[in-house]
Amino acid sequence: MQNRINDALADLTGDPPASGPTKGSPTGIGDWNDLDEVRDNPGATYTLLNDLDSSTAGYDSVVDPAGGGFTPITPFYGTFDGNGHVIRDLVVDTDGFGGLFGQTGASGSPGEITDLGLENVDISGEGSVGALVGSNSATITRVYVTGDVQGGDGTLPTTGGLVGTTDGNISKSFSAATVEGPDNVGGLVGKNEEATIEKSYATGDVDVTGEYAFGGALVGNNNFSGSVVTNAYATGKVSAGLGGGGLIGNAANGELKDSYWDKGTTNQDGAVGPGGSSGSGFVGFGSTSNTEPANEMTGDDAPNNMRALDFTNTWDTVSGDYPILQSIDQGAQ
Predict the structure, then answer these.
(1) Where in this protein does the record put region Disordered (predicted)?
(2) Partners of 135 in beta bridges
(3) What is the band of 32 on the pLDDT scale with cuts at 50, 70, 90?
């Protein structure tokens, strides 16, 4: 893999081929076999050279959709640059941490994942489960997810569309995946442990199967001092037994600020479940009696009502729809 992909990178960049994968010399990923080999050097720097899907070389053997699916890469503590490309049709069915990456981060090397799309995923696992990462310490920027994510009854379960549990910061990302799990279930992140989640959104439905459990349209559990959610919004329907929130399920000790939810589409009158949240500027629009998108959050009305969002540098309006991120391809949103 190394020589062939480094030659391809040299053709693209004009730089001489690297002698091997290191933290500073990107290794290109051109097919599923290349992606699978990331686990052999988890601290290196990688770049995705093209989209991957079910027709790309190596899919049947590496992903094995009829069997257990793709084996999550764990741990990963390097740099993964999606380069604006998309990984489609990823299937994971594991009894461990579920996601493209099972766990990210190592002592002194949290890792970084940027500029990647995951579309039409089918992810299931135990413990911490997310389409991108099950248990995350990496910095995640400009990553999005569509498809289905399902968490099982593992120890301390957390399930999120993008990430199951995170103590790494997440920015300018979104999830449109439907998410189901027994507890700590969020449209974007299941549980936030002292990280900052900002400039992000979630639109997928959230189904919490546990009777005494928490779920939020954006984050399931933000109940940690130092956990911050800001400049975000959520619109997916939340079905939760004990603690459902239009933004966060459980947030008593975390901070929520300058964020928005649609009361009608989330079916939630409150931003958070029982216990409330510190912070200010979180506002819900619409009514639970009307499941049509709230007018205040759509089109040209959005900047007038979602005032904490930066519509100059970060967000764009869409006629008749919710805001989208400028830094992610409009067609994906």
Answers:
(1) 1-36
(2) 103, 165
(3) very high
Cα–chain-centroid distance for residue 118? 9
Output the CA–CA distances (angstroms, integers) from residue 30 to 23, 220, 332, in the order listed: 19, 35, 21
Band of residue 13 on the pLDDT scale cut at 50, 70, 90: very low
Give the 3-state secondary structure of residue 297: helix
C-alpha to C-alpha distance for 98 and 127, rounded to whole angstroms: 8
Pairing relation of β-strands 315-318 and 321-325? antiparallel
Per-residue pLDDT averaged across 267-286, rounded? 86
Q: 150-161 in b/e burial notation, b at 16+ Cβ within 10 A? A: bbbebeebbbbb
Going 12 to 120 to 203 to 217, the CA torsion angle's sign is negative
The rounded distance, in Å, linking the Cα atoms of 41 and 205 is: 36
Would you state the pLDDT for residue 277?
67
Nearest-angstrom CA–CA distance, 188 and 148: 12
Q: Of 180, 244, 243, nearest to 217 (Cα)?
A: 244
Can you tell me the distance from the alpha carbon of 235 to that of 156, in angstroms, rounded to the nearest whole number? 26
Q: Rounded CA gap, 163 and 214, in Å?
A: 16
Max CA distance (Å), the chain: 62
- Tell whether the torsion through CA atoms of 232, 233, 236 and 238 is positive or negative: positive
First to last CA, the chain: 33
pLDDT tens readout for residues 170-214: 999 999 999 999 999 999 999 999 999 999 999 999 999 998 899
pLDDT (0 to 100) of residue 15: 42
Burial annotation 191-228 (CB, 10 A radius, 16+ → b, else e): bbbebbbbbbbbbbbbbbbbeebbbbbbbbbbbbeebb
- Rounded to the nearest 10°, the torsion over CA 52, 58, 64, 65 is 30
pLDDT value for 65: 85
Q: What percent of the chain has pLDDT over 70?
A: 92
